[in-house]
Design a protein that fits this description.
homodimer; 247 residues; alpha+beta; Jelly Rolls; 10 helices; globular; DNA-binding
Amino acid sequence: MSNGLIYRLEQLEILNSEDFRIIDTLLVAQRDIPEHSFIINEKHAQQYIHFVLKGWAIKYKTLENGDRQIVNFVLPGDIISIYSPIFLNAEHTVESITDMRLGYFSSGLLLETMRNAPRLAVALMWMAGQDERVLEEQIVRVGRRRSTKRMAHLLAELFRRQRLAGFSYEQARLLPLNQLLLSDALGLSHIHAHRVFRELDKIGLIARTHNTIELLDIKSLVAFSDFDESYLEAIVNPTMIKILKPS
Amino acid sequence: MSNGLIYRLEQLEILNSEDFRIIDTLLVAQRDIPEHSFIINEKHAQQYIHFVLKGWAIKYKTLENGDRQIVNFVLPGDIISIYSPIFLNAEHTVESITDMRLGYFSSGLLLETMRNAPRLAVALMWMAGQDERVLEEQIVRVGRRRSTKRMAHLLAELFRRQRLAGFSYEQARLLPLNQLLLSDALGLSHIHAHRVFRELDKIGLIARTHNTIELLDIKSLVAFSDFDESYLEAIVNPTMIKILKPS
DNA sequence: CGTATATTTGAAAGCTGTCAACACTTGTGG
DNA sequence: CCACAAGTGTTGACAGCTTTCAAATATACG
């Protein structure tokens, strides 16, 4: 598992070697940041598009009263807010929760790429669409699932997303999360998140160590949470592919 | 208020007359559909990109147990799931809740436009980004706001979105919604939604008639719900505009 | 006019948040 | 290496919010 983004794009099976060469040029600019760094700041302008080579971040919004709601987790292989440069000010904050390695490129380069590399444009749109699907699932989760299954469902998603970024089964079982982060993501008080934790613990689905959650039984976790991974599937509509290759 | 999409794009101030001419060609294909029609079907392939000329729809996902969660409302001036054609199967359903007039165009045309009209491409990305912002706000709403303010916050958003699509103040005060729809959107039981309704009624924020909610006091509604409209702002980052016009 | 859909009510149960302490871990500086 | 501070995790009790159940009423539509 070297580069989650490339791994994901390979799965799509729409890019050719020239496309990957272009991606290589995007990979030039990289930087390492420590835990608790801000990548995007609410109410601030954003110039670059980032993508994650290593580490995790959270994307959240802060309320009037200081509460925060984590909107999504940002994993290796994810692009961070592809749209940010379009807007004057960001509406959410993106903050690292582990050490990270990021790649980044300018919005101008994005536009150029969308223009000159139609397959890459579709791939990027696919990434953005994927992101939207994850957000929608988060709405369903928070709106319609009870705390325990809500937590389990999120954990199942995060496992699956790590797998889709090329993590091995064993690696993907480990999530760099704690109680606070999960309660802020699930719309629960941290005290109730603790109750939920204990319950999942008791039925043998998870184990916890400092800042790491270990998924002990993926199959049961998926069944218990009614997790249906179809919204994460990495398949491009064949019609779209036909349009790309009008041979 | 003739065409909400054009109205919104005009506000962006990045398109020129040639761009609007291209849009005109996209406007050729239109159809009218009655209330309760399916525009996109969960688990079905999607070929066209739709946009709303008239009427409202809901975008929702159905759970294992038959519950549904409305993920977003679809209003005049909105594009319906710009990404749909990329995926093999839709992950949500879009269903009209009033009579509607839709425009539609093929995914091939979308790609071509993104390629040949960079300003339009940015405009479309802006639309998609706007959509994502609305989803994120919905997550915050459902995750971190209590029922009454949650409802008020959503109503304030919908008013604002109608205004941004060119509705007059008086028109935008009317929402074609009922109790069931709002409870499914807010993650509440319809019984609790009813309690909330009565409360908003009592403090004079709304009035209800058959399938229409009337907002009586926008200012108080916004204040009561801590509604901050900044996530809906129609401003493109100047840097982006500069990139488009490298004069 | 009857049926289906939507709204309304009251009561009870259940889930989740809040409060107030306390314990534990980690990282820092002496 | 120890002590302390800060952050995170843990507990129990209780209040409050929301769902569920059961049933009645209203409204729309054919």
